[in-house]
Design a protein that fits this description.
The complex is a heterotrimer of chains A (about 400), B (about 900) and C (about 150). Chain A contains 17 helices and 10 strands. In chain A, strand 6 and strand 7 form a beta hairpin. Chain B is an alpha/beta fold and about 900 residues long. Chain B has 5 domains: about 90 residues, Ubiquitin-like (UB roll), CATH 3.10.20.740; about 140 residues, Alpha-Beta Plaits, CATH 3.30.70.20; about 240 residues, Rossmann fold, CATH 3.40.50; about 190 residues, Dimethylsulfoxide Reductase, domain 2; about 110 residues, Barwin-like endoglucanases (Beta Barrel), CATH 2.40.40.20. In chain B, the strands form 10 sheets. A 7-stranded mixed β-sheet of chain B has the order 14-13-27-26-25-15-16, with helices on both faces. Chain B has a 6-stranded mixed β-barrel with strand order 31-35-32-34-33-36. Chain B has a 5-stranded mixed β-sheet with strand order 2-1-5-3-4, sandwiched between helices. In chain B, strand 11 and strand 12 form a beta hairpin. The longest helix of chain B is centred in the N-terminal third of the chain and has 19 residues. Chain B is globular. The termini of chain B are far apart. In chain B, about 60% of the residues are buried. With about 150 residues, chain C is of the alpha+beta class. Chain C has 7 helices and 4 strands. In chain C, strands 2-1-3-4 form a 4-stranded mixed β-sheet, covered by helices on one side. The relative contact order of chain C is 0.13. Classes of the chains: A alpha/beta (about 400), B alpha/beta (about 900), C alpha+beta (about 150). Chains A and C meet through strand 6 and helix 13 of A and helix 2, helix 4 and helix 5 of C. Bound molecules: flavin mononucleotide, iron/sulfur cluster (SF4) and FE2/S2 (inorganic) cluster. The site of flavin mononucleotide (FMN) has 23 residues of chain A, from strand 5 and helix 16.
Chain lengths: ~400, ~900, ~150
């Protein structure tokens, strides 16, 4: 894995932690210091405030403010609360969480433990997709080391705080990345999303308040608590503070993972990945749930709010570059097939809609159906689907047709 | 707490937190929906119930009104979206209404009309599952609303159904993929809740079109729950049966009620009176038959006295008929020799609870069980014998987090839901009950205030209990002492605890003792006289409660008023205008003995089947053979009728009117749906005619008139008449204004103070020994009812099980070399039968279990007819037996 | 199998238990008896276990094969020719309609994104990862992993 740290843009937030395959290495680089500081005298409220102030937004795709989530769970009244790390990473084009799990396992353990401490949770789960065999191994190992050294378990580091953490494996289902489907899966069931509200922060695992955050979101936590929210806010933009991991793949010379300030341009990232193999046509940003960005958008800053202004999304940050020979419509068809395969089947618009949408799109390609009809259906699915999986094609198709409804 | 909700510009106040869809419907808004049903939890998957809340499109079924809302129920966008979703929902269905039997009765069809989206015949590429005996699933018509899956688990507690696959391939599946091999027991909850033709009864599929048809309400006959049923009739045949959304069953039914009523109307029903001559029956006219019966009974009375005549009334007939029958025996014949098979099931309950509380019925109501914190079920295989009640218990556990304690030698289905399962040796109930009470007292967990204020006899009782330490009880019962302690704590610490029991408690020589001990436990913990608690005997037959209530018992007049009480007798003599006997009559088993002793010469049996239902059948059959004159009035030529001198054809509950009283004391209406088959007549009319012929005129215009008479002499029914049947009241109903009694003994017990009765443990009458090393126990199974007269005629029920079997524990089976399906001979001191073995660990080691429904291997040839000294109930549940493989 | 089940008491471990059981088995998929046993252990119904088994694509239908080859067909791999790889594999291994190779050793599955987009087109053979493949390389990999 080639990693390019965008040092000219910022000093990195996540990748700066040096490789830590052993607990000793992690600890000697200042690992678990932050946890110790809070367990021995720090206040829960400080953690909550710092995360809130940092403006950190979830890196799993929906970009919800992490501090608000944590506060909601901290304030919920319940005997039992849970912390869940979403490591299902099924979004096509996305491989950032895998890298973190394999290379920074203790960073996640420490962050989840702090989150549990701040919110009053006593148990945590890392839900890793079943295909990530190596990441599962690494993480398992890390957890057992952490238990051995009292960074997990009863009375952590001789404090009064206890926290148990375990791994749950996925088994091949993209929708498990959707937070409520993920909760169902942790409970050992068919991963069909629940309706919201109630949100997981009110009723999550077994009906108890639950924080669900993406791996990368947790990976930001320690540097925020170490260096402070103000330090963190130097990076990125006003509404999207911090840095982001961008997995770049497709027709670039050197597919890789890049940490960069939020607000970095697409062009810059492509360049860092060695430039395009042949002529740049467009990039699929955000995976299947994402959208196309074109040549004229190469210089546009990539942040949650800037893309939203354009009616587009950043999603997971995945960047799949297409050159002039690639056929966008093939990619669209491929993605619609992906959604047909991955729809959980629970709600009508998504289960029945995607197959019809694919047919309509093919109809459009052979000239028998208007693009409005295609867009009308994807818009209907957007408005009526139970979870975001069924809502996703809207961005893809609008960006394909170059219209925003 | 309320919340302001503005709907389409109009302001309303609604209950905070309530479901928006329900609320919108309650104010008359017509919102389409498929997946939502009040009976199950919200799913939010069909996406049809869309409305706008504060400008956002949401599904109203998943929206709770927790804060002020502004709702638009329909505008252009909403209509567009609803229609669009519906189009998607049906685009790939085979909605071929023209060729569907439920055309015109289909929720999907209604929605299609409402939304203006036509349904069409489509591709049929998914395979149908038609392997269930009673229903069929056609995935080509399935809208995946999930109602069936949820109903199976959330309502019935079964979980036989699940969705399999995902996305477009999703479909409903039973068990490991087909209904046939699944644990589906055919309750049909799924069929009733399905909004399309995807799940249909096989009886419905046989029809081209269901419409037009008629629908009648009545009360099911297959057990004491008294489920309200809707019978759909077409061309004078039962098309199907649905559960009515009403007390007590709230729409649910079991396989017998839903699919087994065909057994009532089979062609071999008795259609003409029969007289036996030279061992063959001859069809005769009613005149001839009735004349003969009247004349014979008069002759016998004249020669041997009234006490030489006995009558068996029927727990399957209506209240009105039982009343008429006991009046006939008492007023016309002049004896108290009237009893019915309550003697064989809950005589000990009536006797015991009378002593402890002063009233011998279920203290609380069925629906309370769902909200009880701790439920102790003992001696009741509720899932099989009272299936619909078991769903209330299961829901208490699954939905409301109740704790269930099962005390039963068998690993019955409910143990799957139980926190604790205590497995006592058969017949050691007093011991474990005393053990539990010992722990409660030792740990000071008793309800002292209740004991002080509401009860008497405590000190004497305490003295006995002190000896039953958990150690001692473990020795007697085989239950680990830790479990006894745990159960005691769990039960005693509950806010509300209820005890549910049935014949595993009552059918013992110590039946009354067992019941007294249960009453003691309830009083000790203060769990009587309040909601969600009580002592709740589940009555077995459809009207066994009512038959007793209206006096079909040898020692009491209607309303449990004692015959040996002078003033009571006076009252009835006045009401009935004759002199009455003050001597308590014979009980069921005593009648049989008296026949063999030559003291009883005539037996009149109305709708009972002692030749199969009574213990020690060889003995019973001898009696039936030898009695001078036997009249049997029934709907089929039963095993007992075969012995009769005169057989009188009665009509079934589908052909007459009346009331049943269910196990929770609720009076329920039976309605006439069909004309009587052949020349058959309602039981009450036949009895009235015989009575009149015998010189005591009985004439009623209708069952309604009989009920008015019942109310006039029976204080607990005093406020009831047919004008109030729709209220489905529970007795006591003191007056026309009184609204019945949900639970008994509220501020004081019927007898004043509750009475603690000290009870010591006594061994069952027969214990295993070297010759007969096993304990035999008998009971019911789900698919059959009593002696099978009706259930074994049902095409559907017999497809599930139609063969006797004996359950043997694997350890015992290996000792005698028995494998499942081997023919084995089971022998007791009284008899011997041959039947198939079912080797399973449902039974405790050292015991065998045989259902008593099967005439070809009648379990009661083996049972012991020793009696409980007080209640005179026989010990059906314990007999020592031996078992060996029979060469087939 | 009993060993594995003993490790898991709570109903929520159903998926974990199935993973472990399948990992230990030579042939893929669970038999009816095994499903019954699992259901009984977790105090749930067989229907529910079947529901879970059939929901997740990593849990195979009952097939006797030694290796599962998972070929990613999601966009990143797709544009780099993973469809051709699938076609190649099927003909090279002589797969039947269930996508089992002629020699019965391999099951070829088309799967969605494996998170290996940086080395697209990518393939997993059981637990091992292979990337930047073309037909020749894939052939070598298959032969090395028989
Ligand atoms: C179909 C679907 C798939 C998703 N997959 C993932 C995923 O793989 N990883 C992830 O972190 N979030 C995923 N999400 C987003 C989660 O639902 C949720 O927003 C996220 O875990 C919250 O964490 P965050 O706030 O830290 O981003 C997915 C959402 C949907 C609708
Ligand atoms: S939108 Fe798709 S994935 Fe989400 S609940 Fe509906 S069917 Fe399932
Ligand atoms: S009724 Fe609301 S989504 Fe089905």
């Amino acid at each position: 894995m080639k990693i390019i740290v965008e040092s000219s843009l910022s000093s990195p937030v996540i990748l700066s932690f040096s490789k830590e395959d052993t607990l000793t290495a992690y600890v000697s680089n200042g690992g678990f210091e932050t946890l110790e500081r809070f367990l021995k005298g720090g206040k829960r409220i400080e953690i909550l405030n710092e995360i809130l102030k940092s403006g950190l937004r979830g890196r799993g795709g929906a970009a919800f403010k992490t501090g608000i989530k944590w506060n909601a769970v901290a304030n919920a009244k319940s005997d039992k609360k849970f912390v869940v790390c979403n490591a299902d990473e099924g979004e096509p084009g996305t491989f950032k969480d895998r890298w973190i799990l394999e290379n920074r396992p203790f960073l996640i353990i420490e962050a989840m433990t702090l989150c549990a401490y701040a919110t009053g949770a006593s148990r945590g789960y890392i839900y890793i997709r079943g295909e990530y065999k190596n990441a599962i191994e690494v993480m398992k190992n890390a957890i057992s080391q952490a238990y051995n050294e009292s960074f997990l378990g009863q009375k952590i580091m001789d404090s009064d705080f206890s926290f148990d953490l375990e791994i749950r494996r996925g088994a091949g289902s993209y929708v498990c990345g959707e937070e409520t489907a993920l909760l169902e899966s942790i409970e050992g069931k068919r991963a069909q999303p629940r309706f919201k509200p109630p949100f997981p922060v009110e009723k999550g695992l077994w009906g108890c308040p639950t924080v669900v955050n993406n791996v990368e979101t947790f990976a930001n936590v320690i540097s925020i608590l170490k260096n402070g929210a103000d330090w963190f806010r130097q990076f990125g933009t006003q509404d999207s503070p911090g840095t982001k991991l961008f997995p770049v793949s497709g027709r670039v010379k050197e597919p890789c993972l890049i940490e960069a300030n939020l607000g970095v341009t697409l062009g810059r990232l492509v360049e860092e990945a060695g430039g395009v193999d042949d002529d740049f046509q467009c990039a699929l940003v955000g995976g299947a749930a994402g959208n196309f960005l074109y040549k004229d958008e190469l210089n546009y800053p990539l942040s949650y709010e800037t893309l939203k202004e354009k009616g587009k999304v950043l999603g997971s940050g995945a960047i799949l570059v297409l050159n002039k020979n690639d056929r966008r419509e093939e990619v669209v068809k491929n993605i619609l097939e992906f959604f047909i395969n991955e729809s959980c089947g629970k709600c009508t618009p998504c289960r029945e809609g995607y197959p019809v949408l694919l047919e309509k799109f093919k109809g459009y390609l052979n000239g028998s159906i208007s693009k409005d009809e295609v867009l009308r259906l994807s818009n209907l699915m957007f408005k009526t689907s139970l979870c975001a999986l069924g809502q996703s094609s809207k961005f893809l198709l609008e960006s394909y047709f170059g219209v925003v409804l | 707490m309320n919340v302001e909700v503005k709907v389409d510009g109009v302001s309303y106040t609604a209950e905070r937190g309530a479901n928006l869809l329900e609320f919108l419907r309650s104010i008359g808004k017509d919102i389409p929906s498929l997946c939502y049903r009040p009976k199950i939890s919200e799913t939010g998957s069909c996406r049809l119930c869309l409305v706008k809340v504060n400008g956002r499109v949401v599904t109203s079924c998943t929206q709770r009104m927790t804060e002020p809302l502004e709702v638009i129920t329909e505008d252009e966008e909403i209509s567009f979206l609803r229609r669009g979703v519906f189009e998607l929902l049906v685009h790939d269905l085979d909605a071929d209404c023209n060729n569907c039997p439920i055309d015109g009765l289909c929720e999907l069809q209604d929605l299609s009309r409402k939304l203006g989206v036509p349904l069409k015949k489509g591709k049929r590429y998914r395979s149908i599952d038609a392997t269930s005996p009673v229903l069929q699933y056609d995935p080509n018509k399935c809208v995946k609303c999930g109602r069936c899956v949820k109903a199976c688990y959330e309502v019935q507690g079964k979980g036989v159904l699940s969705f399999i696959n995902r996305g477009k391939e999703e479909r409903v599946s039973a068990g490991l993929g087909s209904w046939e091999m699944s644990e589906c027991d055919g309750c049909g909850e799924c069929v009733q809740i399905c909004p399309t033709g995807a799940l249909l009864e096989k009886s419905v599929i046989k029809n081209e079109k269901v419409l037009p048809f008629e629908r009648y309400r009545t009360t099911c006959i297959y057990c004491g729950v008294g489920c309200q049923i809707e019978v759909w009739v077409k061309d004078d045949k039962i098309l199907k049966v649905e559960g009515a959304d009403d007390v007590p069953n709230r729409g649910s039914l079991c396989v017998k009620g839903r699919f087994g009523l065909d057994g009532v109307l089979k062609p071999d029903r008795l259609k003409h009176p029969l007289i036996k001559e030279d061992d063959v029956f001859r069809e005769v006219s009613w005149e001839e038959a009735l004349d003969l019966v009247a004349q014979k009974l008069l002759e016998i009375r004249n020669e041997y006295g009234a006490d030489a005549i006995c009558g068996l009334s029927s727990a399957k007939c209506t209240n009105e008929e039982n009343y008429v029958f006991q009046k006939f025996i008492r007023a016309t014949v002049g004896t108290n020799n009237v009893d019915h098979c309550a003697r064989l099931c809950h005589a000990s309950t009536v006797a015991g609870l009378m002593m402890s509380f002063g009233s011998g019925a279920m203290t609380n109501s069925i629906d309370e069980l769902e909200y009880t914190d701790v439920i102790l079920v003992t001696g009741s295989n509720t899932t099989e014998a009272h299936p619909v009640i078991s769903t209330f218990i299961k829901r208490a556990v699954i939905k409301n987090g109740a704790k269930l304690i099962v005390v039963d030698p068998r690993r019955i289905d409910l143990t799957r839901f139980a926190t604790l399962h205590l497995q006592p040796r058969n017949g050691t109930d007093v011991a474990w009950l005393n053990g539990i009470m010992n722990v409660i007292l030792r740990e000071g967990l008793e309800n002292k205030e209740f004991i002080r204020e509401r009860t008497e006899g405590f000190e004497e009782f305490r003295a006995v209990i002190e000896e039953y330490t958990p150690e001692k009880v473990e020795k007697i019962t085989g239950i680990k002492k830790e479990l006894i302690v745990e159960a005691a704590r769990l039960f005693a610490k509950a806010k509300n605890a209820s005890i549910v029991y049935a014949m595993g408690i009552t059918q013992h020589t110590t039946g009354t003792d067992n019941v007294l001990s249960i009453a003691n436990l309830a009083m000790l913990t203060g769990n009587v006289g309040k909601l969600y608690s009580g002592v709740n005997p589940l009555r077995g037959q459809n009207n066994v409660q009512g038959a007793g209530d209206v006096g079909a018992l040898p020692n009491v007049f209607p309303g449990y008023q004692r015959v040996d009480n002078e003033s009571v007798r006076k009252k009835f003599e006045e009401a009935w205008g004759v002199e009455l006997s003050g001597k308590p009559g014979l009980t069921v088993v005593e009648m049989i003995n008296a026949i063999l002793d030559g003291k009883v010469k005539a037996l009149f049996v109305m709708g009972e089947n002692p030749a199969l239902s009574d213990p020690n059948l060889k003995h019973v059959r001898e009696a039936l053979e030898s009695v001078d004159f036997l009249v049997v009035q029934d709907i089929y030529l039963s095993e007992t009728a075969e012995y009769a001198d005169v057989v009188l054809p009665a009509c079934s509950f589908l052909e007459k009117e009346g009331t049943f009283t269910n196990t929770e004391r609720r009076i329920l209406k039976v309605n006439k749906i069909f004309e009587p088959l052949g020349e058959s007549r309602p039981d009450w009319q036949i009895i009235c005619d015989i009575s009149t012929r015998m010189g005591y005129k009985m004439k009623y215009g209708s069952p309604c008139e009989i009920m008015d008479e019942i109310a006039s002499v029976t204080h607990i029914y005093a406020g009831f008449n047919y004008d109030r049947v729709d209220e489905k009241l529970q007795w006591p109903i003191w007056s026309k204004e009184h609204e019945g009694t949900k639970f008994l003994h509220k501020d004081s017990f019927t007898r004043g103070k509750g009475r603690f009765m000290p009870v010591d443990y006594i061994d069952p009458a027969e214990l295993p020994d070297d010759e007969y090393p096993l304990i035999l126990s008998t009971g019911r199974i789900l698919y059959h009812y009593h002696t099978g007269t009706i259930s074994r005629r049902s095409d559907y029920l017999t497809e599930y099980i139609n063969e006797p079997f004996v359950e043997i524990h694997p350890d015992d089976a290996s000792v005698c070399g028995v494998k499942t399906n081997d023919l084995v001979r089971v022998t007791t001191r009284r008899g011997s039968i041959v039947l198939k073995a079912l080797v399973c660990d449902v039974v405790l080691k050292g015991t065998v279990f045989i259902p008593f429904h099967f005439r070809e291997a009648a379990a009661n040839l083996l049972t012991n007819d020793v009696l409980d000294p007080i209640a005179k109930i026989p010990e059906f549940k314990v007999a020592s037996a031996k078992c060996r493989v029979e060469k087939a | 199998m009993d060993e594995i089940l003993k490790r898991y008491n709570d109903r929520s471990y159903l998926i974990e238990a199935i993973h472990d059981i399948l990992d230990k088995k030579d042939e893929k998929g669970l038999g009816d008896e095994e499903i019954r046993k699992i259901a009984k252990h977790f105090k749930t119904s067989v229907a529910e276990v079947l529901g879970v088994l059939t929901f997740y694509s990593m849990f195979p239908v009952k097939l006797k094969v030694k290796h599962t080859i998972r070929v990613c067909v999601s966009p990143a791999c797709y544009i780099k020719g993973s469809r051709e790889l699938v076609e190649f594999l099927k003909s090279y291994l002589g797969c039947d309609e269930n996508n089992v190779s002629r020699d019965g050793l391999f099951l070829v599955e088309e799967v969605e994104c494996l998170g290996l987009c940086d080395i697209a087109p990518a393939v997993m053979i059981d637990n091992k990862i292979f990337g930047n493949l073309d037909k020749e390389k894939l052939k070598t990999v298959i032969e090395e992993n028989r």
